[in-house]
C-alpha cells in the first residue's frame, strides 16, 4: 500500500493532502527517516526548533512524522514506532489556526440539519444562525434577552462585557422569520407557564447557559467534518476570519466581533488577507 493510499483511507482528503505534503518534506530533508530511532528524531526536532519559532508549526510537523511511522508500522516496514512517545512541551501560539476553520459554505450546512424534536427545531435554528451569521460567543448567546432582538430594526443588540464591546448587528431576512415564529410560538411552549426574559430556553423553560450551548453544538455536529471539530468557538473564529478573506477592513471586523483591542482582531488576519484566503482555500476547498 502506498503512503498516499493509506492517508486517503484514514483521513479526509484535505487532511491527507496536508500530511502527505509534510511527510514528503520530512523525507526530503531527512533521508535517514526510514531507519531513525527516537534519539535521532529528537535531534532532528532540535534542529527544527532553531528554524521555526512558531510552536504550532513544530506540533504540526511532529504530528505528520507520527503519521509517517504509523504508516511504516501498518505496512510492516517497522515493528517499532520511534515517534510514538514524542511529546512537545512548547506552548502553542495563540494565532488562529486556519486549517481548522470553516468556509462560509461549510457554515451554511450547519443550518440544514434535520431535527428529531420539532419543538426545539426552531430554537436551534435561531441559536445556530446567531453563531453562523453574527459569530456570537456562547456567553453572549446565553445572555441575550427578548428585548435584545430588534425585529423592527432588523438587528440584534449584544451587551458589552469586561472583555467585549457592546454592538448592534444586522439580522439576515431568514433570521427575521425564524425569530418571529420562535418568539410568538415556540418560546411560549418552552416557557410552560414560567417566566424568563432570556431568549434561548431549554426543555424546562430555563435559560440555556453557555456550557449547555457549547455541549449542544459539539454533540449535534460531531463527525460532520472529519478531522475538524465543530464547536461554537470555532464557528465564531471562522466567521471572523471569513470577513477578512472577503476584504473587510480590520476596523469593521473589530466592531463586528466586539473586540476591545485591535490586537485581538489582528490574530484572525495573521500576516495578510491573501495568506488567510489562500490557506482556507488550500485546506478546505469548496467541492
From TrEMBL:
Similarity-based family: Belongs to the 'phage' integrase family.
UniProt KW keywords: DNA recombination, DNA-binding
Domain Tyr recombinase: 97-281
One Pfam family recorded for the sequence: Phage_integrase
This protein's name: Tyrosine-type recombinase/integrase
GO molecular function, one term: DNA binding
Protein source organism: Chitinophaga pinensis
Source superkingdom: Bacteria
InterPro entries according to UniProt: DNA_brk_join_enz, Integrase-like_cat_sf, Integrase_catalytic, Integrase_recombinase_N, Tyrosine_recombinase_XerCD
Amino acid at each position: 500500500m502506498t503512503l498516499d493510499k493509506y492517508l486517503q483511507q484514514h483521513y479526509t482528503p484535505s487532511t491527507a493532502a496536508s500530511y502527505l505534503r509534510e511527510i514528503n518534506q520530512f523525507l526530503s530533508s531527512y533521508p535517514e527517516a526510514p531507519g531513525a530511532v527516537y534519539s535521532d528524531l529528537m535531534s532532528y526536532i532540535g534542529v527544527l526548533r532553531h528554524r521555526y519559532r512558531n510552536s504550532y508549526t513544530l506540533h504540526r510537523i511532529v504530528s505528520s512524522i507520527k503519521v509517517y511511522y504509523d504508516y511504516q508500522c501498518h505496512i510492516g516496514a517497522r515493528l517499532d514506532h520511534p515517534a510514538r512517545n514524542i511529546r512537545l512541551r512548547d506552548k502553542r501560539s495563540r494565532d488562529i489556526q486556519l486549517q481548522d476553520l470553516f468556509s462560509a459554505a461549510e457554515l451554511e450546512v450547519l443550518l440544514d440539519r434535520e431535527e428529531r424534536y420539532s419543538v426545539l427545531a426552531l430554537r436551534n435554528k435561531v441559536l445556530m444562525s446567531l453563531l453562523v451569521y453574527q459569530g456570537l460567543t456562547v456567553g453572549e448567546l446565553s445572555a441575550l434577552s427578548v428585548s435584545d432582538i430588534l425585529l423592527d430594526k432588523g438587528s440584534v443588540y449584544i451587551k458589552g462585557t469586561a472583555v467585549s464591546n457592546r454592538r448592534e448587528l444586522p439580522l439576515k431576512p431568514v433570521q427575521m422569520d425564524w425569530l418571529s415564529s420562535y418568539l410568538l410560538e415556540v418560546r411560549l411552549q418552552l416557557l410552560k407557564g414560567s417566566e424568563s426574559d432570556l431568549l434561548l430556553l431549554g426543555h424546562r423553560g430555563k435559560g440555556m447557559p453557555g456550557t449547555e450551548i457549547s455541549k449542544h453544538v459539539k454533540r449535534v455536529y460531531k463527525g460532520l467534518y472529519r478531522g475538524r471539530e465543530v464547536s461554537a468557538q470555532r464557528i465564531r473564529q471562522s466567521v471572523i476570519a471569513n470577513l477578512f478573506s472577503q476584504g473587510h477592513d480590520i476596523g469593521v471586523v473589530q466592531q463586528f466581533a466586539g473586540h476591545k483591542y485591535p490586537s485581538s482582531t489582528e490574530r484572525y488576519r495573521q500576516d495578510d488577507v491573501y495568506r488567510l484566503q489562500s490557506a482556507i482555500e488550500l485546506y478546505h476547498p469548496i467541492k
